[in-house]
């Protein structure tokens, strides 16, 4: 049977592999003496209970808000600085080594410094999210600008276009796929950064939910929180990818 727009074989393989994974998880988690990894038959009831009582949903909303604010700041800074570094030679020579060094460094090691300068509250958490998402957006934007065809730029210059006009009408459209890809990756890193911030700075929202469950050795509730966090991250990444595909499709249609 063929379903338009659906790869049936791929769907069957995905469903079968998921079922096999959960079956193995159920078997392992049900073994005598197994405590750290409870089976799905205990995790999913705990997940439903946590959602129904509102605690998990409220915690997720708080975490997503921190991630959204940090991602918005990182997007503006990353795209802007990426365009500047790729177009201004002195900025490239000065900032590129610093960006590469900072990107290679573990972000979590900056938590004590962030806590001292910005505090442990909302500002500190947003700052950490910005650092998580900023570099991947900047690097993708810079790479996009560097792959712009030189003949297009020279043609624009022959018509006496200004640097701003070249950036707007030549570089930005050609760079858009790279920018959108960087934003999609940045969204995922922003969610990760928000959760890390709530675990390492002021414990709150999903971080507080997970720590409370772990502190009371309520492993089904802890695994439910982890599973919910993974689903939330997947949903955010899927939505970002959907917007990226829609934007690129719209851009492709608009060029004809």
How would you explain this protein's 3D organization?
This protein has 256 residues and is mostly helical. It has one domain (42-246): MetI-like (MetI-like fold). Helices cover 82% and strands 0% of the residues. The chain contains 10 helices and no strands. The chain has helices at residues 8-29, 40-52, 55-87, 89-104, 111-118, 122-146, 150-158, 163-200, 205-215, 219-254. Helix 3 runs antiparallel to helix 8 (163-200) and helix 6 runs antiparallel to helix 8 (163-200). The chain is globular.
CATH topology heading: MetI-like fold
CATH superfamily: MetI-like
The SSE string, one letter per element, is HHHHHHHHHH
Share of helical residues: over 70%
Structural class of the helix and strand makeup?
mainly alpha
Oligomer: single chain
Rounded to the nearest angstrom, the radius of gyration is: 23 Å
What is the architecture at the second tier of CATH? Orthogonal Bundle
Question: Which residues sit in consecutive blocks of at least 5 with pLDDT less than 50?
Answer: none
SS element count, helices? 10
Count the E strands: 0
The proportion of residues in beta strands is: under 5%
End-to-end CA span: 36 Å
| CATH class label | Mainly Alpha
Major pleated sheet:
none
The average pLDDT is: 85
Specify the overall morphology. Answer: globular
